[in-house]
Protein backbone atom coordinates (compact mmCIF):
# COMPACT_ATOMS: atom_id res chain seq x y z
CA UNK A 1 0.00 0.00 0.00
CA UNK A 2 2.94 2.27 0.69
CA UNK A 3 3.89 2.06 -3.00
CA UNK A 4 0.66 3.74 -4.12
CA UNK A 5 0.94 7.31 -5.35
CA UNK A 6 -0.19 9.80 -2.69
CA UNK A 7 -0.51 13.55 -2.64
CA UNK A 8 -0.99 15.76 0.39
CA UNK A 9 -4.39 17.11 1.39
CA UNK A 10 -5.42 18.99 4.52
CA UNK A 11 -9.01 18.63 5.76
CA UNK A 12 -10.43 20.37 8.86
CA UNK A 13 -12.09 18.32 11.57
CA UNK A 14 -13.37 21.34 13.45
CA UNK A 15 -14.88 24.59 12.22
CA UNK A 16 -14.58 26.63 15.43
CA UNK A 17 -11.32 28.32 14.49
CA UNK A 18 -9.58 26.93 17.55
CA UNK A 19 -6.04 25.50 17.34
CA UNK A 20 -6.72 21.78 17.01
CA UNK A 21 -4.90 18.94 15.25
CA UNK A 22 -5.75 18.61 11.57
CA UNK A 23 -5.36 15.71 9.23
CA UNK A 24 -2.75 14.79 6.70
CA UNK A 25 -4.37 12.93 3.81
CA UNK A 26 -2.68 10.88 1.17
CA UNK A 27 -4.75 9.51 -1.72
CA UNK A 28 -4.32 5.85 -2.66
CA UNK A 29 -4.76 5.14 -6.37
CA UNK A 30 -4.27 1.39 -6.10
CA UNK A 31 -7.70 0.65 -4.53
CA UNK A 32 -10.90 0.36 -6.68
CA UNK A 33 -12.78 2.81 -4.45
CA UNK A 34 -11.78 6.28 -3.25
CA UNK A 35 -9.43 5.71 -0.32
CA UNK A 36 -7.03 7.81 1.73
CA UNK A 37 -4.40 7.40 4.43
CA UNK A 38 -4.91 9.84 7.27
CA UNK A 39 -2.44 10.91 9.94
CA UNK A 40 -3.01 13.56 12.64
CA UNK A 41 -0.72 16.56 12.07
CA UNK A 42 -0.17 20.15 13.18
CA UNK A 43 -2.10 23.16 12.06
CA UNK A 44 -2.24 23.94 8.37
CA UNK A 45 -4.54 25.39 5.72
CA UNK A 46 -7.86 23.78 4.81
CA UNK A 47 -7.50 23.34 1.09
CA UNK A 48 -7.40 20.31 -1.18
CA UNK A 49 -4.19 20.12 -3.22
CA UNK A 50 -4.71 16.99 -5.29
CA UNK A 51 -6.65 13.72 -5.47
CA UNK A 52 -6.81 10.48 -7.35
CA UNK A 53 -9.24 9.68 -10.17
CA UNK A 54 -11.71 7.93 -7.89
CA UNK A 55 -12.06 11.05 -5.75
CA UNK A 56 -12.36 13.17 -8.89
CA UNK A 57 -15.42 11.16 -9.88
CA UNK A 58 -16.97 12.02 -6.50
CA UNK A 59 -16.51 15.70 -7.17
CA UNK A 60 -14.11 16.19 -4.23
CA UNK A 61 -11.35 17.97 -6.19
CA UNK A 62 -10.04 20.47 -6.89
CA UNK A 63 -11.80 22.68 -4.35
CA UNK A 64 -11.63 23.89 -0.77
CA UNK A 65 -13.71 20.94 0.35
CA UNK A 66 -14.52 20.76 4.03
CA UNK A 67 -15.30 17.46 5.68
CA UNK A 68 -19.01 16.93 6.41
CA UNK A 69 -19.80 16.83 10.10
CA UNK A 70 -20.62 13.10 10.04
CA UNK A 71 -17.23 12.37 8.47
CA UNK A 72 -15.41 14.59 10.99
CA UNK A 73 -17.09 12.86 13.91
CA UNK A 74 -16.30 9.42 12.50
CA UNK A 75 -12.62 10.38 12.15
CA UNK A 76 -12.54 11.72 15.69
CA UNK A 77 -14.18 8.56 17.08
CA UNK A 78 -11.73 6.36 15.15
CA UNK A 79 -8.74 8.35 16.44
CA UNK A 80 -9.99 7.99 20.02
CA UNK A 81 -11.05 4.35 19.71
CA UNK A 82 -9.37 0.97 19.89
CA UNK A 83 -7.19 -0.45 17.15
CA UNK A 84 -9.93 -2.72 15.75
CA UNK A 85 -12.70 -0.12 16.03
CA UNK A 86 -13.97 0.78 12.54
CA UNK A 87 -16.33 3.75 12.23
CA UNK A 88 -18.94 3.82 9.47
CA UNK A 89 -20.92 6.87 8.37
CA UNK A 90 -23.09 8.28 5.60
CA UNK A 91 -22.80 11.86 4.42
CA UNK A 92 -23.66 14.23 1.60
CA UNK A 93 -21.21 16.47 -0.22
CA UNK A 94 -22.35 19.52 -2.08
CA UNK A 95 -25.80 20.90 -2.78
CA UNK A 96 -28.38 20.80 -5.52
CA UNK A 97 -28.17 18.53 -8.55
CA UNK A 98 -24.41 18.11 -8.14
CA UNK A 99 -24.59 16.77 -4.60
CA UNK A 100 -23.12 13.34 -3.90
CA UNK A 101 -24.31 10.81 -1.31
CA UNK A 102 -21.46 8.82 0.19
CA UNK A 103 -21.05 5.91 2.54
CA UNK A 104 -17.71 5.82 4.30
CA UNK A 105 -15.63 3.82 6.76
CA UNK A 106 -12.50 4.73 8.71
CA UNK A 107 -10.30 2.51 10.83
CA UNK A 108 -6.82 2.38 12.28
CA UNK A 109 -4.26 0.39 10.27
CA UNK A 110 -2.58 -2.50 12.07
CA UNK A 111 0.98 -2.26 13.39
CA UNK A 112 2.35 -4.44 10.57
CA UNK A 113 2.36 -1.40 8.30
CA UNK A 114 4.90 0.17 10.63
CA UNK A 115 2.82 3.14 11.75
CA UNK A 116 -0.03 2.79 14.24
CA UNK A 117 -1.00 6.42 13.74
CA UNK A 118 -2.23 5.81 10.19
CA UNK A 119 -5.97 5.51 9.43
CA UNK A 120 -7.60 4.23 6.25
CA UNK A 121 -10.64 6.16 4.93
CA UNK A 122 -12.78 4.59 2.17
CA UNK A 123 -15.80 6.08 0.43
CA UNK A 124 -18.48 4.52 -1.76
CA UNK A 125 -20.69 6.64 -4.02
CA UNK A 126 -24.36 5.95 -3.22
CA UNK A 127 -25.77 8.90 -5.15
CA UNK A 128 -27.72 6.86 -7.70
CA UNK A 129 -28.97 4.45 -5.03
CA UNK A 130 -30.13 7.29 -2.79
CA UNK A 131 -31.75 9.08 -5.71
CA UNK A 132 -33.70 5.91 -6.55
CA UNK A 133 -34.67 5.54 -2.89
CA UNK A 134 -35.85 9.16 -2.71
CA UNK A 135 -37.87 8.74 -5.90
CA UNK A 136 -39.50 5.58 -4.55
CA UNK A 137 -40.20 7.35 -1.29
CA UNK A 138 -41.76 10.24 -3.19
CA UNK A 139 -43.99 7.81 -5.08
CA UNK A 140 -45.06 6.14 -1.84
CA UNK A 141 -46.23 9.39 -0.26
CA UNK A 142 -47.53 11.18 -3.40
CA UNK A 143 -50.60 10.85 -5.56
CA UNK A 144 -49.47 10.21 -9.12
CA UNK A 145 -52.53 11.84 -10.67
CA UNK A 146 -52.63 15.20 -8.88
CA UNK A 147 -49.10 15.44 -7.49
CA UNK A 148 -50.58 16.05 -4.05
CA UNK A 149 -49.59 14.01 -0.99
CA UNK A 150 -51.53 10.78 -0.64
CA UNK A 151 -52.99 9.50 2.64
CA UNK A 152 -49.61 8.35 4.00
CA UNK A 153 -47.87 11.52 2.85
CA UNK A 154 -50.58 13.67 4.38
CA UNK A 155 -50.24 12.04 7.78
CA UNK A 156 -46.46 12.35 7.61
CA UNK A 157 -46.60 16.05 6.70
CA UNK A 158 -49.13 16.79 9.44
CA UNK A 159 -46.99 15.00 12.01
CA UNK A 160 -43.92 16.97 10.91
CA UNK A 161 -45.86 20.23 11.11
CA UNK A 162 -47.17 19.36 14.56
CA UNK A 163 -43.69 18.56 15.86
CA UNK A 164 -41.97 21.53 14.32
CA UNK A 165 -44.31 24.40 15.15
CA UNK A 166 -45.42 25.92 18.40
CA UNK A 167 -48.48 24.09 19.82
CA UNK A 168 -51.64 25.47 18.23
CA UNK A 169 -55.16 24.27 17.58
CA UNK A 170 -55.62 22.69 14.19
CA UNK A 171 -58.33 21.07 12.12
CA UNK A 172 -58.42 18.24 9.61
CA UNK A 173 -61.20 18.35 7.03
CA UNK A 174 -62.11 15.41 4.83
CA UNK A 175 -63.97 16.07 1.59
CA UNK A 176 -65.80 13.45 -0.45
CA UNK A 177 -67.13 14.18 -3.94
CA UNK A 178 -70.82 13.41 -4.32
CA UNK A 179 -71.94 11.18 -7.19
CA UNK A 180 -68.38 10.80 -8.48
CA UNK A 181 -68.68 7.09 -9.25
CA UNK A 182 -71.82 7.72 -11.28
CA UNK A 183 -70.21 10.67 -13.06
CA UNK A 184 -67.11 8.55 -13.76
CA UNK A 185 -69.28 5.83 -15.30
CA UNK A 186 -70.92 8.29 -17.68
CA UNK A 187 -67.96 10.42 -18.76
CA UNK A 188 -65.29 7.69 -18.65
CA UNK A 189 -62.22 7.16 -16.47
CA UNK A 190 -59.94 9.55 -18.37
CA UNK A 191 -62.43 12.38 -18.07
CA UNK A 192 -62.96 11.37 -14.45
CA UNK A 193 -59.23 11.76 -13.83
CA UNK A 194 -59.34 15.20 -15.43
CA UNK A 195 -62.20 16.12 -13.12
CA UNK A 196 -60.16 15.04 -10.07
CA UNK A 197 -57.21 17.17 -11.25
CA UNK A 198 -59.45 20.18 -11.80
CA UNK A 199 -61.06 19.79 -8.38
CA UNK A 200 -57.57 19.60 -6.81
CA UNK A 201 -56.56 22.85 -8.50
CA UNK A 202 -59.66 24.68 -7.31
CA UNK A 203 -59.23 23.40 -3.77
CA UNK A 204 -55.56 24.46 -3.76
CA UNK A 205 -56.50 27.98 -4.80
CA UNK A 206 -59.01 28.29 -1.93
CA UNK A 207 -56.51 27.43 0.83
CA UNK A 208 -54.00 29.54 2.73
CA UNK A 209 -50.27 29.16 2.14
CA UNK A 210 -49.71 27.14 5.34
CA UNK A 211 -52.52 24.66 4.73
CA UNK A 212 -51.84 21.10 3.56
CA UNK A 213 -53.99 19.56 0.81
CA UNK A 214 -53.84 15.85 -0.02
CA UNK A 215 -55.76 13.35 -2.10
CA UNK A 216 -56.52 10.70 0.48
CA UNK A 217 -58.61 8.39 -1.71
CA UNK A 218 -60.26 7.96 -5.09
CA UNK A 219 -62.66 10.88 -4.72
CA UNK A 220 -61.63 12.03 -1.25
CA UNK A 221 -59.38 14.94 -0.27
CA UNK A 222 -57.88 15.87 3.10
CA UNK A 223 -57.00 19.35 4.37
CA UNK A 224 -54.93 20.36 7.40
CA UNK A 225 -55.15 23.92 8.69
CA UNK A 226 -54.17 25.92 11.75
CA UNK A 227 -57.08 27.64 13.50
CA UNK A 228 -57.39 30.32 16.15
CA UNK A 229 -61.14 30.87 16.15
CA UNK A 230 -62.34 27.30 16.73
CA UNK A 231 -65.48 26.24 14.88
CA UNK A 232 -65.90 29.69 13.31
CA UNK A 233 -62.59 29.24 11.45
CA UNK A 234 -63.61 25.76 10.33
CA UNK A 235 -66.95 26.94 9.01
CA UNK A 236 -65.27 29.80 7.14
CA UNK A 237 -62.86 27.35 5.50
CA UNK A 238 -65.77 25.05 4.68
CA UNK A 239 -67.56 27.99 3.06
CA UNK A 240 -64.54 28.67 0.85
CA UNK A 241 -64.25 24.99 -0.05
CA UNK A 242 -67.93 24.76 -0.89
CA UNK A 243 -67.46 27.83 -3.06
CA UNK A 244 -65.14 25.78 -5.27
CA UNK A 245 -68.17 23.78 -6.37
CA UNK A 246 -70.51 26.68 -7.08
CA UNK A 247 -69.70 26.59 -10.79
CA UNK A 248 -69.64 23.54 -13.08
CA UNK A 249 -66.33 21.97 -14.04
CA UNK A 250 -65.49 22.04 -17.75
CA UNK A 251 -64.22 18.65 -18.89
CA UNK A 252 -63.59 18.76 -22.63
CA UNK A 253 -66.90 19.74 -24.16
CA UNK A 254 -68.84 18.84 -21.02
CA UNK A 255 -69.86 20.92 -18.02
CA UNK A 256 -70.10 18.75 -14.92
CA UNK A 257 -71.71 19.90 -11.67
CA UNK A 258 -70.23 18.30 -8.57
CA UNK A 259 -71.02 18.71 -4.88
CA UNK A 260 -69.17 17.46 -1.83
CA UNK A 261 -69.61 16.27 1.75
CA UNK A 262 -67.36 17.77 4.46
CA UNK A 263 -66.40 16.27 7.81
CA UNK A 264 -64.02 17.89 10.28
CA UNK A 265 -62.16 17.13 13.49
CA UNK A 266 -60.64 19.90 15.63
CA UNK A 267 -57.63 19.08 17.80
CA UNK A 268 -56.09 21.17 20.61
CA UNK A 269 -52.44 22.12 20.23
CA UNK A 270 -51.35 19.96 23.15
CA UNK A 271 -52.79 16.82 21.54
CA UNK A 272 -50.61 15.31 18.81
CA UNK A 273 -52.40 12.04 18.02
CA UNK A 274 -52.90 12.63 14.29
CA UNK A 275 -54.22 9.11 13.64
CA UNK A 276 -57.11 9.64 16.03
CA UNK A 277 -57.87 13.05 14.56
CA UNK A 278 -58.10 11.58 11.04
CA UNK A 279 -60.36 8.81 12.34
CA UNK A 280 -62.59 11.40 14.00
CA UNK A 281 -62.79 13.37 10.75
CA UNK A 282 -63.84 10.16 8.97
CA UNK A 283 -66.65 9.68 11.50
CA UNK A 284 -67.80 13.26 10.86
CA UNK A 285 -67.58 12.75 7.08
CA UNK A 286 -69.76 9.66 7.24
CA UNK A 287 -72.40 11.66 9.06
CA UNK A 288 -72.02 14.57 6.61
CA UNK A 289 -72.94 12.24 3.74
CA UNK A 290 -76.25 11.62 5.48
CA UNK A 291 -77.05 15.18 6.57
CA UNK A 292 -75.70 17.07 3.52
CA UNK A 293 -74.02 19.72 5.70
CA UNK A 294 -70.60 20.15 7.25
CA UNK A 295 -70.25 17.97 10.33
CA UNK A 296 -67.74 18.60 13.10
CA UNK A 297 -66.71 15.60 15.16
CA UNK A 298 -68.33 15.12 18.54
CA UNK A 299 -66.93 12.63 21.09
CA UNK A 300 -70.32 10.96 21.41
CA UNK A 301 -70.15 10.03 17.73
CA UNK A 302 -66.80 8.30 18.24
CA UNK A 303 -68.20 6.37 21.18
CA UNK A 304 -71.12 5.26 19.03
CA UNK A 305 -68.74 4.30 16.23
CA UNK A 306 -66.56 2.27 18.61
CA UNK A 307 -69.65 0.52 19.96
CA UNK A 308 -70.79 -0.29 16.43
CA UNK A 309 -67.35 -1.69 15.58
CA UNK A 310 -67.42 -3.88 18.67
CA UNK A 311 -70.93 -4.98 17.75
CA UNK A 312 -69.75 -5.81 14.23
CA UNK A 313 -66.93 -7.99 15.55
CA UNK A 314 -69.27 -9.82 17.92
CA UNK A 315 -71.91 -10.29 15.21
CA UNK A 316 -69.33 -11.72 12.81
CA UNK A 317 -68.34 -14.29 15.43
CA UNK A 318 -71.98 -15.10 16.18
CA UNK A 319 -72.69 -15.81 12.49
CA UNK A 320 -69.54 -17.90 12.05
CA UNK A 321 -70.26 -19.89 15.22
CA UNK A 322 -73.99 -20.33 14.45
CA UNK A 323 -75.06 -18.61 17.66
CA UNK A 324 -78.04 -16.76 16.17
CA UNK A 325 -81.58 -18.06 16.28
CA UNK A 326 -84.88 -17.53 14.54
CA UNK A 327 -88.09 -16.18 15.98
CA UNK A 328 -91.43 -16.65 14.20
CA UNK A 329 -94.37 -14.24 14.06
CA UNK A 330 -97.63 -15.60 12.61
CA UNK A 331 -99.24 -14.31 9.43
CA UNK A 332 -102.98 -14.69 9.99
CA UNK A 333 -105.65 -14.87 7.30
CA UNK A 334 -108.08 -12.14 8.35
CA UNK A 335 -111.12 -13.76 6.72
CA UNK A 336 -110.79 -17.23 8.33
CA UNK A 337 -108.55 -16.60 11.33
CA UNK A 338 -106.19 -19.45 10.39
CA UNK A 339 -102.42 -19.19 10.43
CA UNK A 340 -101.20 -19.05 6.83
CA UNK A 341 -97.49 -18.76 7.63
CA UNK A 342 -94.81 -17.21 9.80
CA UNK A 343 -92.28 -14.46 9.23
CA UNK A 344 -88.84 -15.76 10.25
CA UNK A 345 -86.90 -13.08 12.13
CA UNK A 346 -83.21 -13.19 13.10
CA UNK A 347 -82.56 -12.87 16.82
CA UNK A 348 -79.27 -12.63 18.66
CA UNK A 349 -78.23 -12.92 22.30
CA UNK A 350 -74.74 -11.75 23.20
CA UNK A 351 -72.28 -13.96 25.10
CA UNK A 352 -73.81 -12.83 28.39
CA UNK A 353 -77.21 -14.04 27.23
CA UNK A 354 -78.65 -10.54 26.86
CA UNK A 355 -80.75 -9.96 23.70
CA UNK A 356 -79.37 -7.51 21.15
CA UNK A 357 -82.11 -5.54 19.44
CA UNK A 358 -82.47 -6.04 15.66
CA UNK A 359 -82.67 -2.23 15.46
CA UNK A 360 -79.03 -2.27 16.63
CA UNK A 361 -77.44 -5.19 14.80
CA UNK A 362 -79.27 -5.09 11.45
CA UNK A 363 -77.92 -1.57 10.54
CA UNK A 364 -74.46 -2.71 11.63
CA UNK A 365 -74.77 -5.79 9.44
CA UNK A 366 -75.80 -3.65 6.47
CA UNK A 367 -72.95 -1.15 6.95
CA UNK A 368 -70.32 -3.87 7.31
CA UNK A 369 -71.56 -6.24 4.59
CA UNK A 370 -72.41 -8.92 7.17
CA UNK A 371 -75.99 -8.68 5.99
CA UNK A 372 -75.07 -11.06 3.15
CA UNK A 373 -73.96 -14.03 5.32
CA UNK A 374 -76.71 -13.15 7.80
CA UNK A 375 -79.34 -13.29 5.05
CA UNK A 376 -77.94 -16.58 3.78
CA UNK A 377 -78.12 -18.01 7.29
CA UNK A 378 -81.74 -16.94 7.74
CA UNK A 379 -82.85 -18.56 4.47
CA UNK A 380 -81.01 -21.80 5.18
CA UNK A 381 -82.18 -21.94 8.80
CA UNK A 382 -85.81 -21.20 7.92
CA UNK A 383 -85.84 -24.03 5.36
CA UNK A 384 -84.26 -26.38 7.90
CA UNK A 385 -86.85 -25.54 10.60
CA UNK A 386 -89.69 -25.95 8.13
CA UNK A 387 -88.40 -29.41 7.15
CA UNK A 388 -88.14 -30.31 10.85
CA UNK A 389 -91.77 -29.24 11.36
CA UNK A 390 -92.79 -31.50 8.47
CA UNK A 391 -90.99 -34.38 10.15
CA UNK A 392 -92.64 -33.65 13.52
CA UNK A 393 -96.03 -33.44 11.82
CA UNK A 394 -95.85 -36.99 10.53
CA UNK A 395 -96.48 -37.90 6.92
CA UNK A 396 -98.31 -34.70 5.92
CA UNK A 397 -96.28 -31.49 5.37
CA UNK A 398 -97.17 -28.51 7.53
CA UNK A 399 -99.66 -26.36 5.64
CA UNK A 400 -97.91 -23.06 6.10
CA UNK A 401 -94.99 -21.13 4.64
CA UNK A 402 -92.10 -19.11 6.06
CA UNK A 403 -91.41 -15.55 4.97
CA UNK A 404 -87.82 -14.25 5.14
CA UNK A 405 -86.44 -10.75 4.62
CA UNK A 406 -83.74 -10.04 2.05
CA UNK A 407 -81.77 -6.79 2.30
CA UNK A 408 -81.27 -4.45 -0.64
CA UNK A 409 -77.52 -4.97 -0.17
CA UNK A 410 -77.89 -8.73 -0.42
CA UNK A 411 -80.04 -8.28 -3.51
CA UNK A 412 -77.11 -6.53 -5.23
CA UNK A 413 -74.16 -8.52 -3.85
CA UNK A 414 -75.50 -12.05 -3.55
CA UNK A 415 -77.03 -14.67 -5.82
CA UNK A 416 -80.27 -14.95 -3.90
CA UNK A 417 -81.83 -17.46 -6.26
CA UNK A 418 -78.86 -19.80 -5.79
CA UNK A 419 -79.12 -19.45 -2.00
CA UNK A 420 -82.84 -20.28 -2.07
CA UNK A 421 -82.31 -23.19 -4.47
CA UNK A 422 -79.65 -24.66 -2.20
CA UNK A 423 -81.87 -24.32 0.87
CA UNK A 424 -84.82 -25.98 -0.90
CA UNK A 425 -82.76 -28.88 -2.25
CA UNK A 426 -80.91 -29.49 1.02
CA UNK A 427 -84.14 -29.72 3.01
CA UNK A 428 -86.34 -31.29 0.30
CA UNK A 429 -89.13 -28.70 0.46
CA UNK A 430 -91.00 -26.95 -2.33
CA UNK A 431 -90.36 -23.37 -3.34
CA UNK A 432 -93.96 -22.37 -2.53
CA UNK A 433 -93.09 -22.93 1.14
CA UNK A 434 -90.80 -19.85 1.13
CA UNK A 435 -91.76 -16.23 0.62
CA UNK A 436 -88.96 -13.72 0.00
CA UNK A 437 -89.61 -10.23 1.34
CA UNK A 438 -87.86 -7.29 -0.30
CA UNK A 439 -88.31 -3.67 0.68
CA UNK A 440 -89.94 -1.28 -1.72
CA UNK A 441 -86.74 0.77 -1.99
CA UNK A 442 -84.69 -2.34 -2.86
CA UNK A 443 -87.04 -3.33 -5.67
CA UNK A 444 -87.67 0.10 -7.14
CA UNK A 445 -84.05 1.24 -6.66
CA UNK A 446 -82.90 -1.03 -9.50
CA UNK A 447 -86.01 -2.39 -11.25
CA UNK A 448 -84.09 -4.25 -13.96
CA UNK A 449 -81.98 -6.14 -11.42
CA UNK A 450 -85.06 -6.77 -9.31
CA UNK A 451 -86.95 -8.16 -12.32
CA UNK A 452 -84.09 -10.54 -13.11
CA UNK A 453 -83.75 -11.79 -9.52
CA UNK A 454 -87.48 -12.09 -8.91
CA UNK A 455 -87.93 -14.01 -12.15
CA UNK A 456 -85.30 -16.52 -11.03
CA UNK A 457 -87.06 -16.88 -7.67
CA UNK A 458 -90.43 -17.39 -9.34
CA UNK A 459 -88.85 -20.13 -11.46
CA UNK A 460 -88.21 -21.92 -8.13
CA UNK A 461 -91.92 -21.44 -7.22
CA UNK A 462 -90.96 -19.11 -4.37
CA UNK A 463 -93.36 -16.28 -3.56
CA UNK A 464 -92.41 -12.60 -3.43
CA UNK A 465 -93.61 -9.90 -1.04
CA UNK A 466 -92.90 -6.17 -1.22
CA UNK A 467 -92.27 -5.04 2.36
CA UNK A 468 -93.12 -1.60 3.83
CA UNK A 469 -95.21 -0.70 0.81
CA UNK A 470 -96.29 2.92 0.69
CA UNK A 471 -93.24 4.36 2.47
CA UNK A 472 -91.15 4.84 -0.69
CA UNK A 473 -91.71 6.19 -4.18
CA UNK A 474 -92.99 3.33 -6.25
CA UNK A 475 -93.02 3.51 -10.01
CA UNK A 476 -96.35 1.89 -10.83
CA UNK A 477 -95.22 0.98 -14.34
CA UNK A 478 -92.38 -1.12 -12.88
CA UNK A 479 -94.65 -2.45 -10.16
CA UNK A 480 -96.93 -3.86 -12.85
CA UNK A 481 -94.01 -5.65 -14.53
CA UNK A 482 -92.58 -7.28 -11.40
CA UNK A 483 -93.79 -10.76 -10.37
CA UNK A 484 -94.89 -9.77 -6.88
CA UNK A 485 -97.42 -11.85 -4.95
CA UNK A 486 -98.02 -9.77 -1.81
CA UNK A 487 -97.91 -6.09 -0.86
CA UNK A 488 -97.19 -5.59 2.84
CA UNK A 489 -98.91 -2.45 4.14
CA UNK A 490 -96.52 -0.59 6.43
CA UNK A 491 -97.42 -0.39 10.12
CA UNK A 492 -97.35 3.42 10.00
CA UNK A 493 -100.64 3.33 8.03
CA UNK A 494 -102.25 0.70 10.27
CA UNK A 495 -101.48 2.54 13.50
CA UNK A 496 -104.51 4.67 14.52
CA UNK A 497 -106.23 3.91 11.21
CA UNK A 498 -109.53 3.37 13.05
CA UNK A 499 -109.52 6.99 14.26
CA UNK A 500 -107.66 8.53 11.32
CA UNK A 501 -109.73 8.59 8.12
CA UNK A 502 -106.71 9.59 6.01
CA UNK A 503 -104.81 6.47 7.04
CA UNK A 504 -107.86 4.31 6.38
CA UNK A 505 -108.13 5.89 2.92
CA UNK A 506 -104.46 5.11 2.19
CA UNK A 507 -104.96 1.48 3.22
CA UNK A 508 -108.07 1.30 1.02
CA UNK A 509 -106.10 2.69 -1.93
CA UNK A 510 -103.27 0.17 -1.48
CA UNK A 511 -105.80 -2.63 -1.24
CA UNK A 512 -107.51 -1.51 -4.44
CA UNK A 513 -104.16 -1.28 -6.24
CA UNK A 514 -103.23 -4.80 -5.12
CA UNK A 515 -106.55 -6.18 -6.36
CA UNK A 516 -106.07 -4.54 -9.77
CA UNK A 517 -102.56 -6.01 -10.04
CA UNK A 518 -103.71 -9.45 -8.86
CA UNK A 519 -101.75 -9.30 -5.59
CA UNK A 520 -102.59 -10.14 -1.99
CA UNK A 521 -102.05 -7.75 0.94
CA UNK A 522 -100.64 -8.19 4.45
CA UNK A 523 -101.12 -5.47 7.07
CA UNK A 524 -98.25 -5.08 9.55
CA UNK A 525 -98.51 -3.84 13.12
CA UNK A 526 -102.06 -5.05 13.85
CA UNK A 527 -102.52 -4.52 17.59
CA UNK A 528 -106.27 -4.21 18.19
CA UNK A 529 -109.36 -6.19 17.23
CA UNK A 530 -110.91 -3.02 15.75
CA UNK A 531 -107.96 -2.69 13.39
CA UNK A 532 -108.30 -6.32 12.36
CA UNK A 533 -112.01 -5.92 11.67
CA UNK A 534 -111.53 -2.73 9.65
CA UNK A 535 -108.72 -4.28 7.63
CA UNK A 536 -110.85 -7.30 6.90
CA UNK A 537 -113.74 -5.07 5.86
CA UNK A 538 -111.43 -3.19 3.48
CA UNK A 539 -110.50 -6.51 1.85
CA UNK A 540 -107.01 -6.97 3.35
CA UNK A 541 -105.96 -10.62 3.13
CA UNK A 542 -103.52 -11.16 6.01
CA UNK A 543 -102.60 -9.50 9.27
CA UNK A 544 -99.43 -9.55 11.35
CA UNK A 545 -98.93 -7.99 14.77
CA UNK A 546 -99.09 -8.25 18.54
CA UNK A 547 -102.86 -8.80 18.41
CA UNK A 548 -102.14 -12.33 17.21
CA UNK A 549 -98.76 -13.06 18.80
CA UNK A 550 -95.31 -11.70 19.44
CA UNK A 551 -92.35 -13.44 17.76
CA UNK A 552 -91.87 -16.94 19.24
CA UNK A 553 -89.16 -19.58 19.13
CA UNK A 554 -89.52 -22.61 16.86
CA UNK A 555 -91.23 -25.11 19.18
CA UNK A 556 -93.65 -22.47 20.49
CA UNK A 557 -94.53 -21.36 16.96
CA UNK A 558 -95.14 -24.98 15.91
CA UNK A 559 -97.50 -25.46 18.86
CA UNK A 560 -99.22 -22.17 17.96
CA UNK A 561 -99.82 -23.42 14.40
CA UNK A 562 -101.25 -26.73 15.67
CA UNK A 563 -103.57 -24.91 18.05
CA UNK A 564 -104.79 -22.67 15.23
CA UNK A 565 -106.04 -25.78 13.42
CA UNK A 566 -108.45 -26.43 16.31
CA UNK A 567 -109.80 -22.90 16.66
CA UNK A 568 -109.39 -19.68 14.65
CA UNK A 569 -107.03 -17.02 15.99
CA UNK A 570 -109.68 -14.29 15.57
Quick structural summary:
This protein is an alpha/beta fold and 570 residues long.
What share of residues are in beta strands?
A: 15-25%
Average pLDDT = 82
Oligomer: single chain
Any guess at the CATH architecture of the largest domain?
Alpha-Beta Barrel
CATH class value of the largest domain: Alpha Beta
Structural class: alpha/beta
The helical percent reads 40-55%
- Classified in CATH, the superfamily of the largest domain is EAL domain
Structural notes for this entry:
By secondary structure, the chain is of the alpha/beta class. The protein folds into three domains: 8-132, Beta-Lactamase; 142-297, Reverse transcriptase/Diguanylate cyclase domain (Alpha-Beta Plaits); 316-415 and 426-445 and 466-474 and 488-566, TIM Barrel, CATH 3.20.20.450. The protein has 20 helices and 22 strands. The strands form four sheets. The chain has an eight-stranded mixed barrel with strand order 14-15-17-18-19-20-21-22, surrounded by five helices. It has a six-stranded antiparallel β-sheet with strand order 1-2-3-6-5-4. Helix 5 (180-187) packs across helix 6 (189-206) and helix 11 (371-392) packs parallel to helix 13.
Structural topology:
Layout: E1 8-11, E2 22-27, E3 35-41, H1 53-57, H2 69-80, E4 87-93, E5 100-108, E6 119-125, H3 127-141, H4 151-164, E7 170-177, H5 180-187, H6 189-206, E8 212-215, E9 220-226, H7 231-243, E10 249-251, E11 254-256, E12 260-267, H8 274-291, E13 295-296, H9 299-320, E14 325-333, E15 339-349, E16 355-356, H10 358-368, H11 371-392, E17 401-406, H12 408-413, H13 416-427, E18 434-439, H14 440-445, H15 447-459, E19 463-469, H16 476-481, E20 486-489, H17 491-494, H18 501-516, E21 520-524, H19 529-537, E22 542-544, H20 554-566
Parallel strand pairs: 12-13, 15-17, 17-18, 18-19, 19-20, 20-21, 21-22
Antiparallel strand pairs: 1-2, 2-3, 3-6, 4-5, 5-6, 7-9, 7-12, 8-9, 10-11, 14-15, 14-22, 15-16
Helix pairs in contact: 5-6, 9-10, 11-13
Amino acid sequence: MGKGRTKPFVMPIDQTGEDRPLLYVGWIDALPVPAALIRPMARGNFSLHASNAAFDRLGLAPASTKAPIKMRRAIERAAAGAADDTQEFSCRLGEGVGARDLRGAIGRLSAEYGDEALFLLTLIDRTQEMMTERNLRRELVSDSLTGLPNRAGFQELVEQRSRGDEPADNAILLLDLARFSRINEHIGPLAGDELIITVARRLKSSLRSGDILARSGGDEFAIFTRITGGRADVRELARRIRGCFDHPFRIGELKVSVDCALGCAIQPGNDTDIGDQIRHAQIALKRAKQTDRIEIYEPEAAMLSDNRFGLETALRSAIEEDRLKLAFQPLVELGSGRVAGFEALARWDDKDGSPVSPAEFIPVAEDSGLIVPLGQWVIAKAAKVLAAWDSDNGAAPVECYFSVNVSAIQLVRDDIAAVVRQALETNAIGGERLMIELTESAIIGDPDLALSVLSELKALDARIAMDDFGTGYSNLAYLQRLPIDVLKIDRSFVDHMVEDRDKAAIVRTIQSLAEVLGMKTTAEGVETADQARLLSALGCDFGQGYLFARPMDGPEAFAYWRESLLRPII
